[in-house]
Amino acid sequence: MAHAFRLGDLLQPLCQVIQIPRPCLVCEQRAWRYGVCQTCLHELAQQRQQGRRCERCWVQLPATGGCRDCSARPLAVDQVFVAWDYHDAAELLIQAYKARQQHWLAAVMADALYQQIVGQWITRPEQMLVLSVPSSRAALIRRGFNPAAEVAKVVAKRLRQPYLVGGLYSVDTQATAAQKQRTRQQRLGAKAPAWRCVTLPVNSTVLVVDDVLTTGSTLQHAAQLCRRAGAYRVYAALVARTPWRDHF
Ligand SMILES: [Zn+2]
Ligand SMILES: [Zn+2]
User: Fold this and answer.
1) Does residue 42 sit within a domain?
2) 42, 54, 65, 138 - which has most CB atoms within 10 Å?
3) Residue 238 CA to ligand 1 centre (angstroms)
4) Burial of 4 (C-beta count, 10 Å sphere; 0-12/13-18/19+)
5) Residue 206 domain-assigned?
């Protein structure tokens, strides 16, 4: 997807450093600390409370029936934490972060995610390792950074837990690069991306961080690798969850 150059994209990081007000990235009202105003952040946090939710993957469910993702293939994670629904403002912010190099948004997303984690996960283990879903080499070259890793580092810092650099890593440049372009059916039927996980402490607890949860196939693969590498409990933290209607 092509993204037009915006003057504001140059000014935002500068404003972040010298802490002067700038237009909110979402509503263009005045924003101070974050570049996203408190009203928009509050609305984003409220969205995730709306409607019936799947307890396992947090997708908003239709009026009747269960989660089609989880009934077909339950996620191999103990619990999923999601900050936002992936549409409107959340989509705009994640696109700005990933495609327009607005790296400072990692802190905004990590803070939203941290609030969600501590609110939902009252009895957290004293020790856990924070890992991030890897980017392919092609995506790293295109973006210059791994979006999930930058969010994971801040989440780990806020939780006062270690971030395991390169804990999950990609060994294939093709498979993960193509994942974003696939349709839902292709994603579900596709071969898992060629990743590895370093050896983890036996029976450890890990928190895997990624930006967007769509079908869960990426997260499923990451969780299975962590378990095979020694993790006993695998939790996942996602900046946003794609609503069901957008899966197609
Ligand atoms: Zn705003
Ligand atoms: Zn579900």
Assistant:
1) no
2) 54
3) 22
4) exposed
5) yes
Question: In order along the chain (248 residues), what is the average pLDDT of each group of 10 residues?
Answer: 57 65 86 83 86 86 84 87 92 92 90 94 93 90 92 97 95 56 58 86 97 90 96 96 68
- Domain limits at 169? 54-62+74-247
- Find tokens 């696939």 and name the residue: 182
How many domains in the chain? 1
Quick check: 84 and 112 in contact, CB under 8 A? yes
Per the domain annotation, does 5 fall within a domain? no
How far does residue 150's CA lie from ligand 1's centre (Å)?
Answer: 23
**AA letter at 201:** P
Q: Please tell me the number of the ligand nearest to residue 44's CA.
A: 1
Question: What is the Å distance from ligand 2's center to 71 Cα?
Answer: 7
* Biggest alpha carbon–alpha carbon distance for the chain: 50
Give the whole-angstrom CA distance, residue 26 versus residue 35.
Answer: 9
Helix (H, G, I), strand (E, B) or coil at 146: coil
Measure 82 CA to ligand 2 centroid, in angstroms: 12
- Ligand located closest to 39 CA: 1
Q: Number of helices and strands (H, E) in the chain?
A: 10, 8
CATH number of the domain that residue 102 is part of:
3.40.50.2020
Pairing of strands 129-132, 168-170: unpaired
